[in-house]
Amino acid sequence: MSPLLSLTKSPALKVFVSKTKKVLKWLLFFFVMIGCIFIYWKYFYTYSEGYRAGLLQKFSSKGTLFKTYEGEMILSSVSSNRDVALASEKFLFTLANKSLVRQFDTLQGENVIVHYKQKNATLFWRGDSPYLVDSVNVRR
How many domains does the chain have? Predict the structure, then answer.
């Protein structure tokens, strides 16, 4: 009988293999859980939520494979006496609710207030911006 054949039948080796399999299963479970938590935190967790007010400057459909609706607002922090923005900042966003497309198309050039949710990162089918706008109101 060969020494290798007797080694594969030893009870100590069987115990070692079963414990190793158990440890590897737990490590795999742990890494899958960590991966799931990371993906949820990175792409689906709402980091910030709020309102922005400004002039809706641009609204368009973009994308090569996945068409998304992207918008751009001018947030003015200082304005002159003729309602001209002197110091401004751009707010780039993606439209989360596709039923609002017609409303956004008609509001270009208007002062609006939008409600947004900010994610930690973007997904290619969800648009270019981490800011997802889900409602709009005309600012009076």
Answer: 2
